[in-house]
Design a protein that fits this description.
With 121 residues, the chain is mainly α. It contains five helices and no strands. It has one domain.
Length: 121
């Protein structure tokens, strides 16, 4: 890896973190804060984009995947939200958050890979 690629990935990570914050706030404003919809949207769209990049643009995978999407997606927040939902007595929401996010994330990654492969030809 060249120093330029490293710097680009680091900068992309900062952009990803800022995007995560903005999207989470926007989704919370639209959908409310009772359920962490923003984190779900972020992790599912991040899975899709990583699949797309990996399937169609593998040369950009480090900067976009490790950099941008590494800063954008957030597994740890999703799991902390799951525990918080469970503790608050929302066991169905906690189960959906854990299992639903996994299923939706895998489906989004598969869709992204398929689209990326189709684009790459």
């Amino acid at each position: 890896m060249t120093p330029l690629i490293f710097v680009l990935a680091a900068l992309a990570g900062g952009v990803g973190a800022a995007l995560r914050y903005l999207i989470d706030r926007l989704v919370a404003r639209l959908a409310g804060t009772r359920y962490p919809w923003g984190v779900l949207v972020i992790n599912v769209t991040g899975s899709f984009v990583l699949g797309l990049v990996s399937g169609g643009f593998p040369g950009a995978a480090f900067v976009v995947g490790a950099g941008l999407l590494g800063g954008y997606t957030t597994f740890s927040t999703a799991m902390l939200d799951t525990v918080a939902l469970w503790r608050d007595g929302s066991s169905r929401a906690a189960a959906f958050n854990a299992v639903g996010m996994l299923i939706l994330g895998v489906a989004a990654a598969v869709a992204g890979l398929a689209l990326g492969a189709a684009i790459a030809g």
